Amino acid sequence: MKVQWSSTYIMLVRASEDKQYVDDFVYEIAHEEKDKAKCSKLDNLTLAEDEWERADLFIQLLVHTNERQQAFSSETQPCLQDAIPALEGLHKAWTVRVERPKYVPFADALQAATEKIADYYDKTGDTDAYVISMYLTPNMKGMYFKKNWDASLQRKAETLMEKVFCERYTKLHSTSAPPEPGTTGQRQRYLGTNEEIYEGTSVIHWWGANVYHYPVWASLAQDYLSIMATSISSKRAFSQGSITISKRRNCLKNDIVEALQCLKCAIRHDLLLQASGPSSVTEETISKEEDSEELTEAGTVSDEEESGGAWDLILEDDDEE
Hints:
Blueprint: H1 5-17, H2 19-32, H3 36-43, H4 49-71, H5 83-98, H6 107-123, H7 129-135, H8 143-148, H9 151-173, H10 182-191, H11 203-209, H12 215-224, H13 232-244, H14 254-268, H15 280-299, H16 303-306, H17 310-320
Helix pairs in contact: 1-4, 2-3, 4-5, 5-6, 9-12
């Protein structure tokens, strides 16, 4: 039976925390069974102490999968940039533990698991999106490659980004001329700057605020950071579709179903009434309003000035009393 690693981890953690209740449950169902043969089989399901210890060891191995999977399974934030570091980290963690004596009972399983991780990792080479998304993370960029990849792979990643940047620059400026030397300066200005993302600020908001500083990079970020690292959310949306299209609503057209799904998502994530993000239109509107207020204040005599000021009013009230 195929079981996802994170699901197995959560199940085992819960069982380990409540092992006394698990043992009591097995004992009770075995005690209530009148057939002796079935009762014996149920009684054999009770875990011995050494079996619980092995389950705890298994949990120690699966915690790595759960942490890595959560790293690139977000539905609300870009997470494709975490895929390569997560896979490399998981492969390293399990490879190290294959030779450790305490994990001997899991040696074969660990070997098979590391091979599966290697297969997943090799598939990241089928698309450039993983590397590009890492460069589009402002406080990360190429730091991971410099720290963990050899010189040839680093250069390969740098060449890729140079190519992608130049192609996007040419597309945005609608010219077939070689994008030299303008693109070099823009590209290096971003790569050579130590950016900082403050706590509470998402990568998306950062790019929204810096779209004018790095227009070409921001254009790439718009395309690549929106790519989901896993298909979990799309599968969930597909499953929710079967709830929307019930037996009583089986004649809904595709555009209506799409609209209903989008509306449900917006309501569930409180997206209907959201403050507008940073944009040139918003900034221009605010600027015009501020200029208008300044002109009004400069050309209008306030009520306080006409009556002598607020302090004078207070004095007059005191005199009247």
